Amino acid sequence: MLRPRATTLTVLASDLAALFLSFMLAYLVRIQFPPYTSLYQNFQLLPLLLLFVPIYAAFSLYPGFLLAGPEKLKLLSIASTLGVLFLCGMFFMDQKGMLFSRFILLFFWIMTLITVPFFRYCLKKICGRLSWWGYPAILFGKSEFVEKVAGQLQAAPWIGYKSIGILTLDEEARPENGFESSALDGDKRKAVRQLMAFKQKYNPVTAIVVMEGLKAGRLQCVTKLVKANLLHIIMLPEERFSITVSTSPAMFCSHVAISMRQKLLSPYRLHIKRCIDLLVITAASLPALLLFLLICAAIALDSRGGVLYRHKRIGQGGKEIKIWKFRTMCKNADDLLEDYLRKNPALKEEWSDAQKLKHDPRITRVGHILRKTSMDELPQIINVLAGEMSLVGPRPIVEQEIKKYGEAFETYIRVKPGITGIWQTSGRNGVTYADRVSMDEHYVANWSVWMDIYTLIRTIPEVIKGSGAY
User: How far is CA 261 from CA 220, 264, 444, in A?
Assistant: First the structure.
């Protein structure tokens, strides 16, 4: 039995635990330096951490399931910052405010920006498969498409919504996957009764309308039905539909309009993106240099040949750039590949499709590790410093891949290619090339500072797991 309130309270408890941990870490760091501060005095701040809960709630972060990763990170960061500023304001108004450590408040703020999103991420992964976790949802749509969405919800329970029923919008009701099903056509009263039964058993209930294959009249019918009976509605457009421009609602004269903006065509935003690149590289320069030297030594000891090499790729504006990479192949790599494909003609299609082989005979022992962890891309920091690449963006492609991008190639060349991107944090070689192109279009159209920060954070666990990389 799903328990939405218990789910929300668990998220709330996770936030309080993260805030408490942030405070404890701030205090433990502070007492390492004189003058020493009173434990009792500073612990009087703990009850005030409850003030963060209504602030998070005001930003619709309970439970915040449908928020995209970058947007959720943005709202959590803003809400945490406002919470700390509120505490500072209270202390300023209170004559006892000077008794509290300002360093603890500063470090506490920095830690909340890390621990609160991290705790939520762990909670989602741990509790996602529990029977009581999540919010109930009823799926509406044509059976062939709605059952596919139901299967996707089952396979990814951490999304936060679990299907409790299906109301099909075609004449044949084909209940599958263990879900109850009812036909809407010709018997609207029956559909309403079924909907009310779901609503009585589960509350609150969310409607998920799968628009794929629906005609305008039927879509209008189901929209009216759910609007009249349910509070929350999610509309899923056709899979081939993608928003390639950042949009927002607007008013034009007396008409409702959609305002569109290409953010990465703004010179102002491009300067911000460049500053982020340089700040991150500067902050990580020492560990990156040590890792760079360690990898160089490992490559030199493992096989003969140069440690680095350069490869031609297509950069911003369609210009040719040469990207730096660690060498992961043996010296006679081209001859080995030609011989291997001749002996294994079935693999020619795999090579032609992705320009990669899952079991490539050219890869050295150290090369396998570097590719699995994506560490072979580390030298591209040089390209970032040279202004040819960015830390986040579409992966640089070779000339043979231009035809695979099709019309989307014009979108690709608008921005600098990146060391990491949405593709790298969403399965990499485990997704189709068409999906990769779609992800690149989405990135260019919907770029934000928070999307870059979120992608960089997501890259760390993906590098550790090595999922989809070879």
Answer: 29, 9, 11
Rounded to whole angstroms, how far apart are CA atoms 119 and 124?
Answer: 9
In whole angstroms, give the CA distance from residue 290 to residue 287: 5
Task: Classify strands 320-326 and 308-314 as parallel, antiparallel or unpaired.
Answer: antiparallel
Which residue type occupies 130?
L
* Contacts of residue 87, Cβ cutoff 8 Å, sequence gap at least 6: 45, 48, 51, 105
Secondary structure of 178-221 as H, E, C letters: CCCEEECCCCHHHHHHHHHHHHHHCCCCEEEEECCCCCHHHHHH
At residue 338, the pLDDT reads 73
Main-chain dihedrals φ then ψ at residue 195, nearest 5 degrees: -65, -45
Within a 10 A sphere around the Cβ of 234, how many other Cβ atoms? 14
Residues of the chain with pLDDT under 50: 171-186, 240
Residue 63, preceding bond cis, omega within 30 degrees? yes
Helix axes 449-465, 69-93, angle to 10 degrees: 110
Report the pLDDT value the prediction gives residue 221, as an integer from 0 to 100: 74
Which residue spans within 320-405 are E strands per DSSP? 320-326, 390-392
CATH of domain 135-241: 3.40.50
| Amino acid identity, position 330 | C
The token duo for 118 is: 């991290």
Q: What pTM was computed for the model?
A: 0.76
**If we measure between CA atoms, which residue out of 6, 12, 86 comes closest to residue 51?**
86
Domain ranges of the chain: 4-127, 135-241, 267-328+363-465
The contacts of residue 339 (CB under 8 Å, 6+ apart) are none
DSSP 63-118: S-TTS-HHHHHHHHHHHHHHHHHHHHHHHHHSTTGGGS-HHHHHHHHHHHHHHHHH
DSSP H or E stretch at residue 127? helix 102-127
**pLDDT 10s digits, 159-189:** 888 888 887 765 444 444 444 444 444 455 6
The string of pLDDT tens digits covering residues 318-345 is 999 999 999 988 877 777 777 777 777 7
C-alpha atoms less than 13 angstroms from C-alpha of 264 in its C-beta half-sphere: 28
Q: Look at residue 352 in the predicted model and tell me its pLDDT.
A: 66
* Short-list 85, 82, 62, CA closest to 72: 62
